[in-house]
Description:
Elements: H1 2-16, H2 21-27, H3 29-38, H4 41-56, H5 60-73, H6 76-93, H7 99-115, H8 122-133, H9 141-171
Amino acid sequence: ALLLQTSWYLLRIKMFSWVPPFHMLRNMRDALVMAFSTDSSTATMPVTYACLKEKVGVREESASTGALVGANFNNDGTALYEAMAALFVAQLIGQELSISQQLIIILTSIIASVGAAGIPEAGLVTMTLVFSAVNLPTEYIALLLTVDWFLDRCRTTINVLGDVNVSCLLDGRTKPTYDAPV
C-alpha cells in the first residue's frame, strides 16, 4: 500500500508540477533518509524545507506550506497504516466488518492521523481510537509491535514525501523565474 502511495505521489508531481519526479527524489534524498532514520516528521521538517527550497528549487511559499504545515497535518502514511491494521486484526480474529464499519475505520483513521504527533510510534497510540470505533479489541495492537518499528519508519518517509508532493503541486506547472537549482 505504501508503494502505491509513493507511485501516486510521483504521478501527481509528473502531471501537475514543473518538478520532474526523479529530480525531486534525488534532491530530497537527505530529507527522506532523515525521515526514515529519525522516525519523526517533526525532526525532519527543517531538512525538508531546506531541500525543497535550495535543492529542488520550489518557491518559498510552496516549500513552507508543504513542509511546515504538512508535517503537522499531512499524515497519509499513518492513516493508511491504521486502516490496514484494523482490517488485518478484524480478519485475524474472524470479526466481519460491515460496509458502515469499514467507512468508520476510514474516517477515524484520517481523524486519528491528523491528531498524531510527529514523534516515533505516535500512530500506535492513536490506533486505539480506530479500534475502539468499531469494537475491535485494543489488546491486538500489541501484536503489531513486532513489525511497527520498521513500518513506522516507512510511514514517516511517506508522510514527508506527501509534504513534498503538496509543495510541488502548490508550485504549479510553471518553473520559478529566479535562478533556482535544477
